[in-house]
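look at this:
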Amino acid sequence: MRLLIAALSFVLAASTAQAKQLTDLYQAVVPAGQSQSLWQQQALAQVLVKVAVNPAVIEQSAIKAELKNAGNYIKTFAAVSSEQGPALKVGLDEQKVQQLLSQHQIAIWGARRPAIVLWLVEQTAESRTFMQGAAHPVLTQLQQQAKAIGLPLELPTANDSYVPTLSQDDVWAGNWLLIEQASLPFSADQSLILLFDQPATGQYRLTWQGYEQDQLISNELLANSQQELAAQFLTSLTTQLASKFAVQLGSQQDQTELELDIEGLTNFVDQVKVQQMLSAMLSVKQVTVKERKADLLKFKVQLAADRSAFINSLSLERRLQSLQTTEQTGAVTNGTATAGTETTEVTDELFAEMAAEMATEPLAAPTGTESAVLRYRYIPN
């Protein structure tokens, strides 16, 4: 099973999959034709929910009180049209919003966020089918809630004309080889399956599964309706993701500076791209080039959050392959360091030989030690 997951990780790394960059994180769209105070409060509330990825953030007493001062956070606004009619597109001050949340010790997410693809299957006494269609209530609810919190979700079957390349039985059985293959075109960072059934009259169950650090994670939820299950699932998912990607700015850290070595930077354009990418991370306060040597750049990174938050931010960049990981996990994953130059034949061979290679020797266990220097390789687009 570990070989299977390692091969799937290789395929995902070799693909164009990468986290999504939100371009409207500090923007809101609110209905026109209401008082200035009201639309300003609505705009600030929308942005706070997206930045914290938590609808409950605006229910905190201190935040709720600050909504009355929403005008202090507004930078721009303009009349636009929306599906609901005339509206205002409002731009808010990024620095002030971050200061407000940090002041009240609320963790925030950057604009770079993990993209998740969901495969939803419903089983009844008569049949087992994909949840499909733009008007499906569960899919609609998931899309609306995910948009409100700024979580990139891909729901392939929400497209009325989409024909899945795998069957509902493959999803229900957890055939991850086929699930990951079907997920590749959607450029997602993680695939999850959501299995709905009804174990008793008036009771609905959702079992959702996915891989986390090469381990299959399974969760079960019970509720009185499928829509309620969808809401619980999204809350549970964002809570799990927040433990990795939410950043607590301004917290006291033992180590606020580290060295980051990146190999594979063979031209000046890529060097600039990487430095800009690092500078844009919420977990980074300042980044400078310490040394250039052939295709290697040594960066000095001053952190605005803890080390783990920075490493998790790096994991969202598919162009960066951790050399620590490949050294600790053995030869199976060494190929990821040159994934950008491999052809699709390598992927085909991995799948063709999967059954024969399932009995290979166990991978070397991580040492558990934390290096003072982080080492990565840059994979050009």
